[in-house]
Amino acid sequence: MLRNFSMKSAVLAVVAAFGLMAAAPGAEAQSIERIKQSGVIRVGVMGEQAPWGSIDASGQNIGYDVDVARLIGEELGVKVEFVSNAVAARIPNLLTGKVDLQMAVMGMYPDRAKAVQFSKPYSGLQIILLSSQKNKIETIEDARNLRIGVPRGAAQDKAITTLLGDVPNIRRFDDDSSTIQALVSGQVDAIGGNTTYKINLDRAAPGNDYEQKLVFNEQWQGICTKLGDAELNAWLNDFIDKIRADGRLAAINEKWLGVPLPEFPEAVEGVPFTVQ
């Protein structure tokens, strides 16, 4: 089963490579000067994953990634155009030029770094398993016979599939909200998510008994550009240094996550922060 999963990953990598080649003619549009001349920067964010990115009652984008993106717009002196992304569409949307930057909770992993260029980390979370209090889960093997929901292609999909194999009871959904709804409605017994999923679970089912069961890994998020886009990548790294130093990033972290800004790693194995 793991072999099948690896083959699937390889196919996706090939598709990403073709997408990159298709997008190459538009790479010039990623220069800082061209973005300033256009007066707008298109940024990919999540549309249904609070507190990272969601839509409020007035139809406005809100969230951690949204606030950081607005600061990017202020620094560049341009308008920010937000593009809501499904999990599986994040990298294709960047490579095909639908967005200039991808900030939709982009976890920094070596496989992804082969298709996109990451900046330094600007946020972090943990990839976890959530389920009802009545389900005793101390190891992933305790969940083997449970129906487990995951967003298709997300970090938690890979983590759980790597540990259990591509077993039939792993149910894949198109996005975070449908995965959360599957747990609330009883379609699945547990879900792979991140440490902010509980916010959405409490909103969808007030008074629920869902809790964090397992932690699979620490995930750092970076801002993604196309491979080889050295100018924009360097600008973003300087920008992240600036908003860390002046306290604006810490304020966003406290606002949306309710905790102090973490100490970001100086390196993530297999994921370069600058164009090589």
TrEMBL record:
<comment type="similarity">
    <text>Belongs to the bacterial solute-binding protein 3 family.</text>
</comment>
<dbReference type="InterPro" id="IPR018313">
    <property type="entry name" value="SBP_3_CS"/>
</dbReference>
<keyword id="KW-0732">Signal</keyword>
<feature type="domain" description="Solute-binding protein family 3/N-terminal">
    <location>
        <begin position="40"/>
        <end position="260"/>
    </location>
</feature>
<dbReference type="GO" id="GO:0042597">
    <property type="term" value="C:periplasmic space"/>
</dbReference>
<feature type="signal peptide">
    <location>
        <begin position="1"/>
        <end position="29"/>
    </location>
</feature>
<protein>
    <submittedName>
        <fullName>Transporter substrate-binding domain-containing protein</fullName>
    </submittedName>
</protein>
<dbReference type="InterPro" id="IPR001638">
    <property type="entry name" value="Solute-binding_3/MltF_N"/>
</dbReference>
<dbReference type="Pfam" id="PF00497">
    <property type="entry name" value="SBP_bac_3"/>
</dbReference>
